[in-house]
Write a structure and sequence with these properties.
single chain, 247 residues, alpha/beta
């Protein structure tokens, strides 16, 4: 049961189509997209897991996974989005299960105890900022570029907070897979599951989802069948419809 809803100027209310949950988003800020929904459905959760969401935005991933785990902490650098995330958790009566921290996860030692979480989930900025391009990237596009956290920053934060044999799940650009593997190995992770995401069946993968384990043994990587988003007529595939609860 949700609480009474108060929307401020520029805000809208969206239906998550899960357990009656709603999410407040600001139309001039970065709003969640399909990648957040996909990575929320990727991990193999356990009911006793303590989970950290790195860069939660308005809190969509915690709202989607709240029924699967024991406790969730969500950290967000943008003060406006962190405040909306808190309101979203309260709106859906999940404030006892989900906490939010306004802060920079690059300073993870200031907020968290080492090896205190079972699972870290991340949908981080994807695109490096090239020399001379910083001033050309404006608006919500900045949220997809590595202005506040790099790939290495995300992996380092995950390693610090995860227990030995803890699980790290992330969605990222397929084109950066080699960099991702290198960053994981530098931080004592071994990849165990990998899934490519293709816009259409005959198109190259543009995104990947991965699961990596702290201190995992080398080898035994499971490569899942590709997740195809659209049919040839641009309708969603059955796999995507299942994730969204449409079938």
């Amino acid at each position: 049961m949700t609480q009474e809803i108060f929307l401020r100027e520029g805000e809208r209310l969206d239906d998550l189509m899960l357990s009656g949950r709603k999410i407040i988003q600001h139309e001039r800020e970065f709003c969640f997209a399909m990648d957040s929904v996909l990575i929320a459905h990727f991990p193999n959760f356990k009911k006793n897991f303590r989970v950290l969401d790195l860069g939660t935005g308005t809190g969509v991933i915690p709202l989607l996974i709240a029924d699967e785990v024991q406790k969730i902490c969500a950290i967000e650098l943008n003060s406006q989005m962190a405040e909306i995330a808190l309101r979203n958790f309260e709106l859906n009566n999940l404030q006892e299960k989900i906490s939010v921290i306004e802060g920079d996860y690059r300073k993870h030692k200031d907020f968290f105890r080492a090896e205190s979480f079972d699972l870290v989930i991340a949908n981080p900025p994807y695109v490096p900022v090239k020399n001379g391009e910083a001033n050309k990237i404006t608006g919500v596009a900045r949220a997809r570029h590595e202005f506040t956290a790099t790939l290495e920053d995300v992996v380092k934060a995950a390693r610090f907070v995860l227990k030995f044999h803890g699980v790290f799940c992330m969605i990222h650009l397929a084109s950066r897979l080699c960099e991702i593997i290198d960053a994981l190995h530098k931080n004592q992770f071994e990849m165990k599951r990998l899934q490519m995401i293709q816009p259409k069946k005959n198109r190259d993968a543009n995104l990947i989802m991965l699961e990596a384990i702290v201190g995992g043994n080398k080898g035994n990587l499971k490569i899942l069948p590709p997740l195809v988003v659209h049919n040839d007529d641009n309708s969603y595939t059955d796999e995507i419809k299942k994730i969204y609860g449409l079938i």
